[in-house]
Amino acid sequence: MQRRTEFAEYARARQGHLLRTAYLLCGDPHQAQDLAQEALTNLCRFWSRASRADSVDAYARRVLVNAFLANERKLKRERDTHIALALDAPPPRSEDSDLRLELLAGLAQLGKRGRAVLVLRFWEDLSVEATAAVLSCSVGTVKSQTSRSLVRLREVLGADWVGSMPAE
Q1: Dihedral pair phi/psi, residue 66, rounded to 5°
Q2: pLDDT, tens digit, for every residue of 34-65?
Q3: Rounded to an integer, what distance in angstroms lies between the CA atom of residue 153 and that of residue 114?
């Protein structure tokens, strides 16, 4: 019973964060809700293992990213579909909503691994090593994926964005 209480407290406290990360990964609010729910379900199933991890947040993030990647493999959506879904998403409540929509559209044009790397590195602010751990790949892979994905994102977004994007 205590495990359920522990998990319920964690889920209540972190579900919003997981939902935001899921939205950044997939670009669709409905799919993001499904991903966050799937991640929480999987986290609940393995809560005894997750609660013993060095960082429950890191464990949850990995579960979420794995759910995203599995879903992408299963659905195999075309890039045009991603762009349409990202543009149909409700704009964030911000004066920079147009910029955010452009960025989401640009992210939607990246491959799923490249998108995951950029979201983890620059939105979640994870180190190269932490990103490699979440994606179960080498540090070198994260570095090369980051570099290639930033180059591609710059190509997609155009010259106006170059000055505001992180360096490779």
Answers
A1: -60, -40
A2: 999 999 999 999 998 988 889 999 999 999 99
A3: 10
